[in-house]
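request received
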Amino acid sequence: MEYTPDVDLDELCPVCGDKVSGYHYGLLTCESCKGFFKRTVQNNKKYTCAETRDCRIDKTQRKRCPSCRFQKCLHVGMRLEAVRADRMRGGRNKFGPMYKRDRALKQQRKALMQAAGSSHDQQGFSVHPDLVSPRTPLPTAQHDDMRCLLPSLRCLLPSDLPSPSQHHGNYLSNWTINSSSAARAYTSSPPPGPGVPALVLELLRCDPDELQLQNKSAARLLQEQSGWNQHGRLDTFRLTCLLADQMLFFMVDWARTSIFFKQLKVRDQMKLLHNCWSELLLLDIISRQVLYGREDRLLLVTGQEVELSEIVAHASPALISLVQRGQNLVEKLHILKVDRQEFACMKFLTLFNPDVMELEDHQFIENVQEQVEGALLEYTLCTSTRYLERFAHLLLCLSELRSLSMLAEEYLCCKQLSADVPCNNLLIEMLHAKHSWP
DNA sequence: TTAGCCTTGAAG
DNA sequence: CTTCAAGGCTAA
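response:
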C-alpha cells in the first residue's frame, strides 16, 4: 500500500496544475499563482483578455493571459479577503481553522477512497482518478459551518447519532429555514468577472462543494454496506435508493440555503421542491457526468464509477431505455460543453417553475425565473458566438429533462407497487407528494 | 512581470 | 518553543 506522508503537497494547483506549495489565500495552490494573486490584488491590477475570456490556464501557458488566470483564481475559490490591506507580515488569519479542517477532510477522504476502492473492486466499481486529486474548488467556510444534515439516517438506522429535532416525522412539513447561516453565506461575493453576470456568479456560489458531497455520501454508503455485509449480500437497487435519498437531502440543503429560495415561505418552498425533485436529481446526475464523468461510465456522487454496460446488462427494458435517454442528454450537453455556470442557472430555472399551481408568491417566482433566464442569456452572449442558438439548446435540454424525469417517476412508482423500494424515506415521500397535495 | 526563495510573527 | 501562511525580495 502506497503511503505519502505529505498528503497535501502531492496535489496539483487548481489554477494551473503546477505543484502546490501550501495553502494560499483560501486553498492549496502553487507558489507562482500565490504570487500572481497577491500582486494582482495588492496593486489593484485590471487585466483584459485578448481572446474570448476562456483561455486555458496551465503551467506552460499561465503567463499568456493574466485576465483569465485571475478569473480562474477567483473561480477555484481564492479569497480576496486573505490579501491583507495593511500588508502586515507573519502571523495567522481567520482561515487557519479552515485549513486545518480541510486537511482533516482530505485525510479522511483518502482513507475512505482506499477503503472504497478495495471493497468495490470485486463488484466492478472503480474510483474516478480526477476526483482523487480533485479539480473542484475546496470547501469554503460556509460549507464547513453547515451541519451534517442526514435525518434519513435516523429512520433507516435508529442507532445512529441523534439528528436535529425538527427532522422528526414528515421530513419537509416542519422544516425551518436557518436564515442567519444562509445570509452569512452570501455576504462576501467576489467582484463580477469580466463578462460573467453577477447573478450567475451568485448562483454558482450556492452550489455545494462536490468533494464534501462525496465525503458525506461515501461515508454513508460505506456505513450502510458494512451493516449489510454482516447479514447477507448487498442489494444494488436498495443501495441506489439510498444514494438517491442522500442526494435528495443534499438538494434540499442546497435549496434552503440558496439565494431567492430562502426568501420564500415554507409552503411555496415545499411546492416547488415537490414539483421538481426528480428533475433536479437527474440534472445533478447528468451534470456530474458532463463535468467530471468519463465515457461509458456512470460517476456517482460518492466518486465511484460504474460501467454503463454493467448496468444495462442487469437492467429491465424500462430502465435500459431510461439510461439510454439519459446518456443521450449527457452526450448533447457534453457536445455543447455546458459549464458549471450554466448548470447552476439550469438548476434554478428548474426549481423556480412558475407553472406550479397555487403558489402564494407566484409573482416573485416568475420574476426569479425571468431574472435567471436573463442572466443565462447574458452569460451565453459573453461565452458563445452563436449565443441564441446555444441558449435555445439549453432550454431544450431542460424540457427533455422534464419528460425524462416523468418517466423516471413512473418507473419508481411501478417499482414501489411491486414493493421493491425500501419505504420510509425522503425519496418515497417526494414520490407521493405530487399526488397528495390538497 | 514572473516565480522561487526569504523573512516575519500570531496561533498553537 | 515550532508551524506555516502571510508579505518581501530579486534574478531572470
